[in-house]
């Protein structure tokens, strides 16, 4: 009884005991963890017997990959966490067959080896195993790699139900695709119907629009009809009420101010409202003529004349030409009106 | 080292695997039992390499049975068996998961071998 024997017995006891728990535990996940223990103990046995590389490959592949895969499958199939009732068949036939197998194998091997003692071989290094694998066993190695590849492809194909699926014979055969030639007459008829419907809709819309236009014309026609206003009457009206109608209103700029800003650039409306100082008039290049024209009152008066007659043209030329005309004609009423605004403002302020 | 110890351990593990394959109804547990059996075979291979092959020092080299005079071919066989077990468990779990997707169950007693797949609706 050497140290190796003691190690072998201890590891073997662990392996067999956890293996028994693997096949008898009613918890699925616990069975997987007992399998880890059993495989680890077997790796220890390999180490004792000098197969170092096999032991680490066992730990890597079995414990690291296979058991993890099994536990993944346990979780993917929604196995219960607790003990499962209907996990096992009746134990007796399986126990009889298992015990018979174990007893037969044990008897055979024990009878073959008796209590013979072998000396442990020197531990095999990975270098020697590698030389063997790629020397004497290179053909099985390659075949095994092809087998692994085919197992990979097979697992992928099995996992996808749409690959290689046979059609259901019970289901009716799918109808053949319609022939475009047979379809064409129907399609053409449908397109013609659609085109006719669209043309009818367009005609309806056009008719409605024409009716609207006619109604609007009929409604608008009498309006421009009223007799042209008497020019004399209008002029009298302007003379009497023009100043009142065109008085500056608080809060909205007089039309003249807008006009004035167009006439002379660089002069703001606010400046123009203030009383004109002679100095500033002299400063300008053409003060004598343009300053009086600036005084927007003139422009207002001019607007009184022209405003109703013709709507003010957008061009700038007539605007420039107007003040010169309008200044002598309407100067007095505008000047008379001009002081009113500051006076009124002052009064309101004084109050 | 007494050679009978690893052999008996391996035979006991194999017997446990047989018992598990026959006893369990869950397909994943059956796969675990199969892993136990493959592990027992690995153990026998490694033990034979450590005991029998180690004593064959004076035997004439045969081209088919003894290709190289290095006593490590048992370990290489064990490596090959590990690879085979990995491939087996991969394909086996693919089958089990596909069956679960079709039938929502992994009980191998109720696998209808006379049924065809298209009689069941794919629900996954």
From TrEMBL, chain A:
GO terms for cellular component: plasma membrane. It comes from the Bacteria. Residues 274-351 are annotated as: Disordered. Residues 274-283, 319-351 have a biased composition (Basic and acidic residues). One of its GO terms (molecular function) is quinone binding. Its EC number is 7.1.1.-. Keywords: Cell membrane, Membrane, NAD, Quinone, Transmembrane, Transmembrane helix. It catalyses: a quinone + NADH + 5 H(+)(in) = a quinol + NAD(+) + 4 H(+)(out). Belongs to the complex I subunit 6 family. NDH-1 shuttles electrons from NADH, via FMN and iron-sulfur (Fe-S) centers, to quinones in the respiratory chain. Couples the redox reaction to proton translocation (for every two electrons transferred, four hydrogen ions are translocated across the cytoplasmic membrane), and thus conserves the redox energy in a proton gradient. This is NADH-quinone oxidoreductase subunit J. It comes from Paractinoplanes ferrugineus.
UniProtKB/TrEMBL annotation, chain B:
Keywords: Cell membrane, Membrane, NAD, Quinone, Translocase, Transmembrane, Transmembrane helix, Transport. This is NADH-quinone oxidoreductase subunit K. One of its GO terms (cellular component) is plasma membrane. It is found in: Cell membrane; Membrane. It comes from Paractinoplanes ferrugineus. Its main location: membrane. GO terms for biological process: ATP synthesis coupled electron transport. GO terms for molecular function: NADH dehydrogenase (quinone) (non-electrogenic) activity; quinone binding. The keyword Membrane applies. The chain crosses the membrane at residues 6-22, 29-48, 75-97. It is a multi-pass membrane protein. It holds the Pfam family Oxidored_q2. The lineage of its organism: Bacteria, Bacillati, Actinomycetota, Actinomycetes, Micromonosporales. Belongs to the complex I subunit 4L family. The keyword NAD applies. Its EC number is 7.1.1.-. NDH-1 is composed of 14 different subunits. Subunits NuoA, H, J, K, L, M, N constitute the membrane sector of the complex.
């Amino acid at each position: 009884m050497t140290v190796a024997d003691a190690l072998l017995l201890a590891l073997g006891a662990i392996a067999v005991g956890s293996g028994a728990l693997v096949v008898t535990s009613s918890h699925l996940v616990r069975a997987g963890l007992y399998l880890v223990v059993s495989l680890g103990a077997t790796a220890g046995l390999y180490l004792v017997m000098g197969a170092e590389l096999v032991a680490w490959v066992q730990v890597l592949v079995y414990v690291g990959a296979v058991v993890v895969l099994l536990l993944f499958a346990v979780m993917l199939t929604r196995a219960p966490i607790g003990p499962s009732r209907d996990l096992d068949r009746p134990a007796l036939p399986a126990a009889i067959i298992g015990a018979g197998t174990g007893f037969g194998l044990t008897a055979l091997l024990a009878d073959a080896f008796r209590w013979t003692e072998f000396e442990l071989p020197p531990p095999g290094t990975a270098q020697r195993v590698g030389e063997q694998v790629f020397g004497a066993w290179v053909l099985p190695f390659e075949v095994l790699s092809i087998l692994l590849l085919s197992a990979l492809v097979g697992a992928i194909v099995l996992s996808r139900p749409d690959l290689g699926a046979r059609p259901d014979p019970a289901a009716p055969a799918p109808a053949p695709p319609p022939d475009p030639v047979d379809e064409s007459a129907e399609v053409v008829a449908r397109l013609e119907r659609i085109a006719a419907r669209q043309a009818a809709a367009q005609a309806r819309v056009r008719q409605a629009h024409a009716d609207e236009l006619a109604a609007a014309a009929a409604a608008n026609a009498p309006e421009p009809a009223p007799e042209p206003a008497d020019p004399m009457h209008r002029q009298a009206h302007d003379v009497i009420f023009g100043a009142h109608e065109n008085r500056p209103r608080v809060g909205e700029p007089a039309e003249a101010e807008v006009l004035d800003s167009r006439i002379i650039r660089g002069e703001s409306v606010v400046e123009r409202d203030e009383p004109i100082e002679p100095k500033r008039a002299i400063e300008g290049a053409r003060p004598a003529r343009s300053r009086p024209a600036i005084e927007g009152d003139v422009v207002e008066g001019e607007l009184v004349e022209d405003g109703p007659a013709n709507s003010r043209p957008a061009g700038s030329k007539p605007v420039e030409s107007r003040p010169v005309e309008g200044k002598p004609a309407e100067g007095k009423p505008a000047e008379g009106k001009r002081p009113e605004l500051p006076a009124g403002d002052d009064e309101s302020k004084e109050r | 080292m007494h050679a009978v110890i690893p052999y008996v351990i391996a035979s006991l593990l194999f017997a446990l695997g047989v018992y598990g394959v026959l006893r369990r109804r869950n397909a994943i547990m059956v796969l675990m039992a199969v892993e136990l059996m493959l592990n027992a075979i690995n153990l026998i291979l490694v033990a034979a390499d450590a005991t029998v092959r180690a004593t064959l020092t004076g035997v004439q080299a045969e081209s088919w049975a003894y290709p190289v005079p290095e006593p490590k071919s048992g370990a290489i066989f064990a490596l090959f068996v590990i690879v085979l077990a990995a491939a087996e468990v991969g394909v086996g779990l693919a089958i089990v998961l596909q069956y679960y997707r079709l039938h929502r169950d992994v009980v191998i007693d109720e696998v209808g071998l006379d049924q065809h797949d298209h009689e069941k609706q794919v629900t996954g």
